[in-house]
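Q: Hi! First time doing this. I have a protein sequence and I read that you can turn it into a structure. Is that right? Here it is:
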Amino acid sequence: MKTASTLLSTFALLVLGASFSPVACADATTNAAPAPVVALDFGDYAPGTLRMKASAALDAKNYDAAIAYANKCIEAFGPQAEAQQAALKAMPSDKDEIFKQWALNDVGVCYLVKGQALEAQGKKKDATDAYTTLVNKLAFAQCWDPQGWFWTPADQAKEHLASLTTS
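A: Yes, that's right. Below is the predicted 3D structure, encoded as structure tokens:
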């Protein structure tokens, strides 16, 4: 049997939840309905999956999702990526050796995607931080282009950093 205080607490939660739900209330300043909350699908949480989802979200101009997918990869695999970077004396050139650095490569791309998404949102300082981390901590990350070559996310990050400091 529920007590009066339990019923009151339940009622208060229902009322407050309905009153302050971002989905249930219109924006008070514009009277517009708020954007719907979209649940992210992290798939199998593998670094390659998270990298691909981050890149796809960036391409779709869904910058918040791109950042969320990139952050999930960075949080989960960043320490391993940094360990792989630290174990290397030079950037690998052998295809098999490059692919062995899976965490380094996927996390490196995610830092680039995160920086690009933040830059697109006008968050120059945060974008600069993401690019700088990539350049300073994961410079040997590489990504396979389906057209048949590897490219280096840190090189692109350097280009973005240069444009951010001149603008």
